[in-house]
Every structure is written in C-alpha cells, then in structure tokens.
Amino acid sequence: MMETIFREVARCSFCGFCEHSCPTLKRSIRHYGPRGRVQTILFALKYDILTEKSIEAIYTCLVCNACSIHCPGKIRIASVVREFRKALRDGKIKKGDKILEEVM
Amino acid sequence: MFRPGKLIELLESNMARTGNPLGLKRSLLSEWLRGLPDLKGRDDTILFTGLMYQLTPYIELSTKYLQKIENSSLEKLFYFYVKLSKYVNPYRFLTLRGSDMERYSESLRRIFLILKKSGIDFTYREDLDGYSGILLYDLGDDSAFSSHAQEISDLLENADVKKIITVDPHTTYALKVLYPEYSGLKVEVASYLEILADVIDKGRMENLNEVVIHDSCYYARYLDIIEHPRKILENMGYRVVEPENSREMTSCCGGPIESISPVFSREIAESRIEELSSAGKKAVTMCPICMGNFERCGFSTHDISDLIFGGMNGSEPSQE
Question: Do A23 and B1 touch (CB under 8 A)?
Fold first, then answer.
C-alpha cells in the first residue's frame, strides 16, 4: 500500500494547477491545499518528515476531489490523502512516532 | 482541530454499541415514518435511507457544542468524554428541538411520497435500513468500515434484495462503489434522483421560482449525477441558476470536516454561501450534510425533495 501511495505522489511536479479549486486553501495557508498535501505525504514517505502541521493538513482535507480534475498528471489526490489517513491509522507510518502519539 | 484518533475511537465505540456514528437510540431515527401510508410494496426493491437525514440534525447540534471548545483547553473535556463513551450514552445530555428534527423528517417523508406518486414500486423495511459507515471510511478506518459494510451487505443479501434506492450522495457512493469492493455486494443501487429523472415528465407546472443549484461533491464528481437533478427541476418548471463553481466544478460545503474542525468547516461553508447567495435568492441542496452545515452557518436552503414535492402538489415551499 505504501508503495502505491508513494508512486502516486511522486508523480507530482508541483505545477499548482490543482490549487485554485481547493476550498480549504482559499481560507488558509499553503499546506492546506492539494499541492501542499501531496508534498506533505511525499516528505513523510521519502524524508521521514512528519509534523503536527502535516497531520493537520491531511485531516482538514475535505476529500471533495475538486483538485483531481485539474491535475495534468491525473494524480488521484483526494484518494491518496485518504489512503495516507489509512496508513496513519494502521501504524504504517513509523517515523514521527512521538508526534503521532500526541496528535492522533 | 480535534485529534483524529480520538474521533475515530468515539465513532467506533458508538458504532459498536448502536450501529450509528452518534450512538443514538434507533427509535429516534425512525420518527420520520410517522403518518406515512403503507410501507409495503415490491419485496425485492427497497428504500435505504442510510440514516443520514435522520442523523444530520444531531450532527449539527454536537458540532455547535464542539465548535465552542475547539482550540481551547476545554478540548480535553471532549477526550475525557471519548473515554466515557464506551459506558455512557451521550445523547442523554443533548436535546434537540422538535422543529429541528422535523425539517429532516419531512424531507424523507417527501422522498417516500414522491417515489410512490411517481409509480415506483418499493418497500421500506426498518430492519433492512442502516448507516453505511462512510465516516469511518473517510477517516481511513478501513477495518471498521469493511466489517460494518459486511454486516449490512449480508443483511441485504439474505433478504433477497435486488434493487436499492438511496436518498443521499454519501450512502449512494458507499453502496454503489465501495460495498462491491469491500464486501462484495452485488445489488443494483440507484439514487432516487436517477430514478426520478426518468419518470418525471415535462410541463407539470409553469412559472415556479428560480433556484440556485448546489451540487454535492459526491454526486457530481464521484457518481456523475449532474444532469439528473437539473432535468427533474426543469421538468417541474423551476428555472435552475448555476452559481460560480457548479456541476463537476462544484465547491464543497465544508461538511466533511465539521467534526474534525467545526471552526474551519464553518469558514469553508461561508465561502460557498457567498457564491450561492450572490447567484440568487434561494439555493437548493441534495445532500443532508450540505443542508445541515449551511444551516449551522445561518444559510437556509431547500432540500431538492421539498421542491419536487411542492411542484407535484402545485405549490411552492415557502421562501422563508
């Protein structure tokens, strides 16, 4: 499963076409948008970076899928966010254990 | 933001105790049946409410409380309460005004009556109706979701159900797309809007008001139910006004994160309310969660069933 998530987010070239459609980005800061969320997941999987803010970014996603239709790479953004939640829930994300304990 | 893990814990314990995410007594969720004529019809076709309309007023009530303590030191109270939830029924402490519940019950009754009046043959059986578990899925709790899905699927298949009519987008998505994958459900599922779009003829009434349409994310983007509500409303004589961001570009009401972050969810709703109210006087929703979250933020909408029902009976719902 982690492999599938990684392959999906690694295809992002951070063009930002997805961003204007995101209802949460309009009201907040950069990591609360689809590009930020994809980047958050990539950082967690590739560089073991997971912070309280990244967890917030993942769980404030509406999974409304407005972003995906604009993605030139057809990345399943909303679905990958949900799958990452599942990975967090199932304890598949080992790094940042302490943060997970405090925030989850 | 509330801690997601704690929220999942609460949902799981409520679901285990009562089968619904709020831990409500089943009798509270059956109130809408009062005053309905014969619920029996064709055995193999059933109306499945998924309990979403019934749960929404309670969700909004608890969201109002949660909003007051979010991001304050009182958040701890909520976590303490989560611990208690395995033993105590929360809704002993919360009371709902009858009129708040009535609004949602009325929409469900109207859906029932519209379908009957359109000649659709179906049965409603309380014992075959249940919550879909969609919130568990959204939060990534697949193991709890799939065991719940299995329970509901077994129930439906053992009763030899061949066709399910759903009434809200979240339940429709769960039963139509997720259940076949998670629990092997092989029953035909259709939203009542899909069914009505084929049977409601043109020209029932003229000169009904214009309505601004708010598409549900799940109907528009996950299930491709975009034309159906438009066709129904137009055939009934309503003039459908498209707001900024409509059809597959629709903008979310904020509802999906109302329990994780009531405060932030409210901000999202406010953005959308601005778009809807600048397009026209009254908006129409087709999802109880959208209607409830807008309502919590002071924006009242018509449920699409109220408009269809009004059109069928030659009267428009009041523009209150």
Answer: no
How many Cβ atoms sit within 10 Å of the Cβ of residue B19? Answer: 18
Q: Are residues B233 and B284 in the same domain?
A: yes
Q: Give the separation between CA B272 and CA B296, rounded to whole angstroms.
A: 13
Q: Kindly report the pTM of this predicted structure.
A: 0.94
Q: Is residue B128 part of a domain?
A: yes
Sort out which chain A residues have CB atoms less than 8 A from B139's CB and list them.
Answer: 59, 85, 89
Minimal Cα–Cα distance from B264 to chain A, Å? Answer: 8
Q: What share of chain A is helix, strand, coil (3-state, %, to 5)?
A: 60, 0, 40
- Cα dihedral angle (B115, B119, B121, B123), rounded to 10 degrees? 40
Buried b (16+ CB within 10 A) or exposed e, B129-141: bbbbbbbbbbbbb
Single out the residue in B152, B168, B196 at which a domain terminates: B196
| CB-CB under 8 Å, A65 with B8 | no
B contacts of A28 (beta carbons < 8 Å) = 264
**Same domain (yes/no): B18, B143:** yes
Stretch 11-70 of chain A: residues touching chain B, C-beta under 8 Å: 21, 23-24, 26-28, 55-56, 59-66, 68-69
Torsions phi, psi of B142, nearest 5? -65, -30
How many structural domains comprise chain A?
1
Residue in chain B nearest A79 by alpha carbon: B138
pLDDT one digit per residue (tens) for chain B, 320 residues = 999 999 999 999 999 988 999 888 888 889 899 989 889 999 999 999 999 999 999 999 989 889 999 988 888 888 888 888 777 766 655 667 777 889 999 999 999 999 999 999 999 999 999 999 999 999 999 999 999 999 999 999 999 999 999 999 999 999 999 999 999 999 999 999 999 999 987 665 666 789 999 999 999 999 999 999 999 999 888 999 999 999 999 999 999 999 999 999 999 999 999 999 999 999 999 999 999 999 999 999 999 999 999 888 876 555 44
Shortest Cα distance, chain A CAs vs residue B110, angstroms: 28
Do B141 and B216 have their domain in common?
no
Contact B252 A62 (CB under 8 A): yes
Give chain B's domain count. Answer: 2
Provide the residue range defining the domain that includes A48: 2-98
Q: Which domain holds residue B179?
A: 4-196
Q: Do A65 and B4 touch (CB under 8 A)?
A: no
Query: CA-to-CA distance for B288 and B107, rounded, in angstroms?
Result: 9
Select from B170, B196, B222 the last residue of a domain. B196
Q: Which residues of A touch B252 (CB under 8 A)?
A: 23, 62, 64, 66
Q: How far is A103 from chain B (nearest CA, A)?
A: 6
Q: Are residues B211 and B269 in the same domain?
A: yes
